[in-house]
């Protein structure tokens, strides 16, 4: 019996290997991953209704995360079960391919957990999507770029829409249009009775640009797509 069980496990592992190789093969570019998930390019995404917008956001986050090393679910902050549930719900045509890249439970980062709990405390939509997004946004907020870039979104307005839709009470508190990462940490400090800033008012603070500076720029996916097109055209 033990020998038979080992043999079955070996067959199962062998069956998964081609899927894992195939899934890893298209992960070199966020734009390619996004197209595999949605059938179109990020620039062409139609996000008029809430479901289409949520699907675009989730595809963008997965695309950005998959281009980085490590299990994709860990790069999103999700456990394997939540990751499989997400891709099965929104991207069923490719869920089997993606599911083999999920691996166990990600390490719990205390800082990310604090941001996640802040978002969860201000949820404005029911269902699993808001819970998944709280975890994913918090995990991606640990990356070094602007949050909208770390989420793979096209610009900051999409991030603001995401937060207004799913975490409305929190998002509406950002009345001065502070950068979202800085705003999250300011709220966490306030909740703990701490003061993040040394200056009495923002206009007198030396870090004003860090909190309120411009967040425009080219999205990661647009940049990667441009690089691929230039290489194909022989442009250095």
From TrEMBL:
Source taxon at top rank: Bacteria
A molecular function (GO) term: molybdenum ion binding
One GO biological process term: nitrogen fixation
InterPro entries in alphabetical order: NifQ
Protein name, as recorded: Nitrogen fixation protein NifQ
Species the sequence originates in: Rhodopseudomonas pseudopalustris
